[in-house]
Amino acid sequence: MEDLDLHILSPHFTNPEAAVEYLERLRWPDGRVCPHCGIVDSDDREHYRVKRANSNRKLWKCYSCRKQFTVTVGTIFADSHIPLNKWLLAFYLLCASKKGMSALQLQRMLGVSYKTSWFMCHRIRWAMTEPAFTTKLSGVVEADETYVGGKERNRKRQDKQKKTGRGTDKAPVMLLVERGGQVRSRHVANVSGDEVKGFIRINVDPSARIMTDSFASYRGLRHEFAEHGVVNHADGEYVRGDVHTNTAENYFSLLKRGINGSYHHVSKQHLHRYLSEFDFRYNNREDAHGVDDSERTRRAIQGAAGKRLMYADSR
Questions:
Q1: Which end of the chain offers a freer environment for a tag, N or C, measured as fewer CB atoms within 10 Å?
Q2: DSSP run (H or E) holding 295
Q3: pTM for this one?
Q4: What is the pLDDT of residues 139-169, one digit of tens each?
């Protein structure tokens, strides 16, 4: 009897040649493009295939610039010896897993080494990193901050005092979320007024209504935006009409469940990559945007073009 596993769902996950064909159609929908000179070939007159042994990746040569290329040139897949079908499966698994997937789990599912799996995950997160936003958040925007790191009770402290939130050595994360829209998070140096309000000014349109808690760093926002609604958590107030930060709290809950449950430990050096992963899945979610796992994976793979991440840079 045949084994039943995820690999049988699609030939793109099992056949390296099918994976190459899929990636070529995805990257070159209007015809093959030479990454060296930009010549487009829609009828096989500008490029020709170069035969080579023991390779599943098609090698092309451009008549114009006389340079060779494959579909992986100029992408995160470049110079990788991992079969493309395993790359596509790794993309799908990270895009379909709401709380992420650890490199150890991916290692078991793909049959690669842990070092390879770990580096693949970081390359995929780099592909998920969205370009600089050209439009600012508008409408009702919630702003909040949290702290990411190991649980304080598991840390060795000389005074044995358990502390959470501000005052710990955890990494502060600032979040902006537009209700019914996108989210933008960033690992910040601190949560001072200048740092917090500077992040808000860059990403939020002045016509927006800002919702925050009563943290002192948010003071003064009412002079820069259409409205500044505040809930005082210290007094047990969490909702007053449409004034609340519940959307931001829900995002942080998902982020922390992913980091504590799937990844267990995230260093400050790599925190921005994990934030990109969670932001991407949120901004390409199914509930409001009608994006399923397949479409989310396709969008992530499209983000692989024009990006490189060397192993030395990811350590």
A1: N
A2: helix 293-302
A3: 0.86
A4: 999 999 999 975 555 445 544 454 555 556 7
